[in-house]
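During the no-cost extension, the postdoctoral fellow (Dr. R.K.) reprocessed legacy sequence entries with the updated structure-token encoder. One reprocessed record is reproduced below for audit purposes.
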Amino acid sequence: MTAISLWRWRHIKWPKYAPREHHPFEEDERRWKREAWFALGCFLSGLTGFFSSHIFVHSIAALVCYILAYFFGSWYAVGEAWQHLLKKELDIHFLMIAVAAGAAAIGAWREGTLLLFLFSASGAMEHYAMGRTKKEISSLFRNAPKTARILTENGEQNVPVGDLRAGMRVLLTPGKLIPADLEVTSGESACDESNLTGEAYPVSKQRGDVALAGTMNLWGALEGRVIRPASESSLQKIIRLIREAQSLKAPSQQFTDRFGTGYTWGVLGLCLGMFFIWWFAFHLHPFISTEQEPSAFYRVMTLLVVASPCALVLSVPSAILSAIATGARRGILFRGGAAIETLATVRTVALDKTGTLTSGILKLTTAKFFEVDEERIRSIASTLAALSEHPLSVALRKALPNCPHLDIRNFTSVAGQGLQGEVDGHVYRLGSQDFVKATRPTVEIRHRGAEVWLAGAHPLARFVFEEAVRPESKNTLKRLHRLGLHTVMLTGDRQQSAEEIGRKVGVQEIRSQLLPKEKVAAIEELKRACRSQFRSARIAMIGDGVNDAPCIAAADVGVAMGSRGSDAALEQAEVVLMKDKLENFVLAYLLSRKSKAIISQNIVIALGTVAFMIGTTFLYPIPLAFGVAAHEGSTLLVVLNSLRLLVARF
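Re-encoded structure tokens follow.
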């Protein structure tokens, strides 16, 4: 990608759901190869002209070779400059073309050719680097299905994936990718979900289970009902996050944009002023150079080259794009450069318990009934739970299968408390012990798991659930502590249950029995405490559910768990751990710190080179060829430094 393309931060074309004949990275591959051939033509023509000028004095052949070299070397630069001139903008390509034309005007064909060769070669290398970055991301979704087999009244029919709508019946054969998020209606099989969730083993699928778009049906035939259009599938959510990541600028990128907006005009003004200063104040000939002393125009051309900010323009976006590609390859999606830079300054990490530190899979361990008619109590509990997607409600439904559902009226859901509804004229509540106490106090029973109470006029049942701690949680928190980060667990569970999980994983601070709004207040309090120690310190919040979305939005950096996270959590998050692996947060943090360090290095290299070369040009008449080498060398150095992120090890 050329310098000005990144300066203006143009959107990169990313893959649609259905694969196309040509992927976005293929255009970059063709572009850099064409630029490389043009750069080679410039080099060979210039080299021929150089030897011709030494063998034959006043050789027309040398001039023809140099003109041919100018043609090859300026082909793409002229096109870019012309496009921006039509918009009444001046860019780096304009500066390079102006210098090359000026060099030709004073007979410095050799220096002009060298400039164009290095500029076109660096453009080819930049396109190669950016093409590789996009190829890393495109490869994640290259195998998305193109068509789907649907079942209609007239039999089977193949339709484009983009035409799938909710409610359509889809036939899934073994070895095929699932075209959209489906609910299995018949058949049994297993799916390979490793590309989305990171799960190494096949996940069994039977009636009632959800099969995610982009995963593979392994061995059995399935029939499924489309839950949502392909454009709203889990896979598409991830692709949209990647697309958004390219358009959200990092703070450093915003700085270089502001710096570069008026820089071109400033450089032209400086060069014009120095031309007259060297001409009238230092008595240099305006256009004719001698062996002892270059002309004022020659020195201005050198100044114009060394002052061009190509390296600065590439310093931030090249690093950001490399970091985004590296993260995507490892199951980490950054929602733009700002997320990368902000994550590097995090000092406190708040974590939700259910689904983040734990697996989120709840199992019923105790069921205590306080009345004889257990079957009716089960039906009431199952009916109320069926109207909620809270993890405890889902677990209760699975624990009470095949219970007949009853007619419920006046159903209400109280956030953070529970559910309430009328059955046969009687009010029943399903939820926390405190919520149920509103009808009649219950007997206190000590337990370590999460509990759900059912009560009418008096307590009817008590269900206790336990959830497994993620195997990686303890080691992940240890690594965060070694990195100097403070960890806090925020949960709505009772204190005893929260402390039990906190003890197992080794979290440093526990805040329990929090309602959603209290979690947000806790985040704000942690932010104030964090900034009181370090002004630049930031806080990250890791969660996965709908109830975590406000906290994720309130934190400086919101992190959502996995492709199965709720839409609300994904939309609020700046970072998504795509494969549902908590340990990837450590990788994300280390990658962000490495990226921030490389961005700082790039800016120092770019500004340092420009400042040093401008100062040298003021004090000493350096050759134009030396200025060209320094300018293009710093640009290539910045790009290569950024590409280190593609092979970084953590």
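Residues 584-619 form the longest helix (36 residues). Residues 553 and 572 are 5 Å apart (CA to CA). The remaining legacy entries will be reprocessed before the final report is submitted.
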